[in-house]
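RETRY 2/3 - previous attempt timed out on the joint model. Re-submitting the same 1151-residue input unchanged.
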Amino acid sequence: MRVPLSWLTEFVSWSGSATDLAERLTMAGFPVEGISAVGQLDPRIRVGRLLAVEPHPDADRLQVCRVDVASAEPASVVSGAPGLAAGQLVPIALPGARLPRGEEVQAVELRGVRSAGALCSEAELGLSDDASRVCVLPDDAVPGRPLVELPGIADVVLEVEVTPNRGDCLSMLGVAREVAALTGCRLRQRRVRLREAGTPAAEQLRVRVDAPDLCPRYDARLVRGVRPVTSPLWLRLRLNRAGMRAVGAVVDATNYVMLECGQPLHAFDGERLSGEIIVRRAVAGERIVTLDGVERSLETADLVIADARGPVAIAGVMGGGHSEVTSDTRVLLLESAVFAPSAVRRTSRRLGLASQAAYRFERRVDPAATPDALDAVAGLIVRLAGGRIAPGVVEAAAGLADLAPPTIFLRPRRAVSILGMPLTRGEITRRLRALGARCHGDGRAISVTPPSYRGDLRQEEDLIEEIARVGGYETIPTTLPEAPITHGADTPTRSFVQRVRTVLAGEGLAEMVTVSLTDEVTNERLPGFVGRALAPIALRNPLSSESSALRRSPLAGLLRALRLNLDRGAEFVGAFELGKGYGRDAEGRACEPQAIAILLYGLWPPCGAERSGPPVDFLHLKGIVINLLATLGLGDERVAWQPVGEVGFLHPGKSALVALDGEAVGVVGALHPEIVQVCDIAGEVWLAELDLARLAHYVPRRVAPRPLPRFPAVTRDIAVIVDEGFRAGEIIEEVRALRDVDIESVRLFDCYRGTPVPSGKKSLAYTIAYRAPDRTLTDDEVNARHAAVLERLSSRFQLELRR
Amino acid sequence: MRAELAALREHALADIAACAAETELEAVRVRYLGKKGSLNTILRGLGGLPAEERPAIGALANQIKDEVLARIAEKANELESDRLRRSLAEERIDVTLPGRARPRGHIHPLRAVEREIVGIFVAMGFSVAEGPEIEDDFHNFGALNFPPDHPARDTQDTLFLDLADDALLRTHTSPVQIRVMRAQQPPLRVVVPGACYRRDEPDATHSPMFHQVEGFMVDERVTFADLKGVLVHFLRRLFGPETGVRFRPSFFPFTEPSAEVDIACTACAAAGRPTPGCRVCRGGGWLEVLGSGMIHPNVLRAVGYDPEVVQGFAFGMGIDRLALLKNDLDDLRLFFENDLRFLGQYPS
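RETRY 2/3 succeeded.
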């Protein structure tokens, strides 16, 4: 809320600086987000009295004004503004004066007449957006005085944030009460005395509340004989600075009083209402054209103000167009009421109608203050726009009793135990009384009755918070809990994730964190591995179609990031994300399995003096995955790389299913060319997705080292020529299948195509290491074992042994 | 014979001195000291000498042999150092050629900061818990004392899912507070890191997905003063031991009393003086980094605890915002775009 300091200090005797006040409010839970000095006009802008306004000799649209600025000679100013008349008091910027927007006024000659200054509009002075005419100053302004010295021109505006529980502070009076409670400054409450005349209101007007649960109190007054006028400058300035626009005296007065005391007020054109005022729930399908000219359809949950013909206002939200106050309005019905916060909130949300009134009703208004606000607005209207106030207030307040402040029992010991600081009973009651609460009792509990405007105080904790707040949180000591020493711990899964992160970053990949939302098409196309059996989950209220579903695979995020990096000129993308897939399982339950997702694309960065490294391929990615698994203690012998089968988003011939002890734990391979094309990417994209949960329990807890070999190994090489389609791993599996304990390892060390190998064939070369744990193997022993290997291979496969 | 030996010595030493390579040196050794070398040739005449002279001549021969061998070794050393000197003078590599480095990996700054935050609490005896991102109204709002018509429950602010009626993406990590408290009994000291979602258009300070760390402690007499102590300790570990910290009253449905926690601006106040136009704090001198408070009795009741018996505090912070501050950045989108030129500036 925007609080002009001059307005605030009408209600509280604060005499310190704005910065100090901002600090006090901030530290009491009302953060001040800005302090701005407004209306700080150049002192060379003066009050001037128009002595004469004469036509310019050579220009039809210009006038020559003689202006008394209390100097020896009147100033002569040429102006094109309409409505100028001798006797008016107007602002005149003398030569050299700088206007708020930055331009400097200079003495000029206009069509042969010298103009020593400029008459200013409110817009030019930064006082409002009215640029249509010269600002006319109040009669008590003294010619020659700097305009900035006029009361209400210069001011300081604090932008105060009010938390939703403190609706009582959405007004000058509310903030003033708070300042008084915090600083001990004196609060100045105004008493309004009205002069009433004519037929009592009760004889001309009836009010009936059919829904006292939603409208506990409804007060109305009648004012007759008002004139349409523009509000005076001081009032418009205050409205502007508090963030509202001035529109005309009557409506301005309702807004002014609302800003002043927090009670929203509404003025109806009394002659456009027929019959009694009824506050009731709307009938389904009932319609009303609101002040903004839009026809709205109402529901039974909406509360309306109606007359004999139908709804005339949506209670607390917006008035109706038919009974709007216009320049023809002479009779006013003024409304000051309490509406239930939840009803106002619901209706205002549903209709998308946010208003200052609704904002305050939603945050609860002071049920005891409606008559005061009604009197204040009636008095102000008569002062601004004339008219007579009909004697008496017409009231319907059947629900008022329910709003009486509760009595809360506060145990001082409880306050001490929650806050962790010593507090005497006297200090506690002093702080609560400063807030306007009444405190009684001398047993172990104090009975506290909060003031009517503090509807947020309902239970003991609310009061404890107030005790801490008024005292200042800075007065509460800073201690460490008395608790036994225990060791904290991260979760095993998170520790595992950290391990994976370190390995993959060590492999040269960049970790990414991508938003888990994707579009429906990508989600359909890219089930990933962990989400392969899950149905996509769509958002009900997405922000955009690009993020309208929860992704099934984190690869969706990596692909989006790949696109972005390619657009920005990247040639190599090596990335991973430790994130989740999301989806619905067969039973309809939401699942969010964690995955390790890796993406490789492009040419490796140069390694040494070269333009770039080689293109990334399957084997690079496989190497990374193998290293990752190896760190988890999962050696080659437990991991099988199988043809991928039915994983639609991958290239069927260039992808593998990774199986651990026979159970699938992930996929590694090339993104399906159709998807690559849709994504508009040139070349192959290599992806891996592993199921984190399946791997997480493999964290090796303890290494059991094998003794180092004591005898030398003997190696024998095998070279075979096989068909192109033959898979190199089959030979390794076959050798392992021999289960010869003296075969220590078998490894492919060459894969060759070309002369002399016939086309359609390839040459594979393996090296086998033989070693016995207890002796050096003799040549004969090795030869026998090797012969067994060769025989087995020859009998199992179509292959030609090379010499 | 003495004369012959003396001459042999002279010649041998001269030849050694004249050698220019180790092979020549070996030839010299063979020529004078080899089986068929000059020395042996001379010594073959030893039998012709009177017996009493033999030992003296033998000793002389051995002496000469030792001397020659020593000189050969010495010369060999000289030749070796000459060779080394020459090769050191000749062999050159270009040390300015690019190294053959494997690509460097990078850990995402959000993850690094999250780890740092969690690590500080773990060191204070907090355990870590995690919970689902797909939540329901009860855990995300109801149990946390949000009134039924609270604006946060609105479709304007919360992302709802096409699942069960009240399925939503959690808007904070606080539902895990409920889950942990329902599953375990006090004393509890827990932190909860994780992703959260709100219906915000992405901009410099908003992201539909963001990250929080939630923490709470429940025991028989954990106080607001303890909350201050724990958070001051945490913030000074994270931002430096001199960091200014202040607690301001605020309002959250799930805590009372509630406090916003500010740290002195990391840009201007840390340098000793708040600056009016500071781009980080906009001149205020303080940065809001945490929300906290004493757990509301209604929340304790919702999980089946008796607020007359146990009490505790809870706090929550945005990892993303803290990561911005720690990395001196001002645009959240950098974290979620994953531009490699950005990520590449962080260590692995």
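The first strand of chain B starts at residue 127 and ends at 128. Closing ticket.
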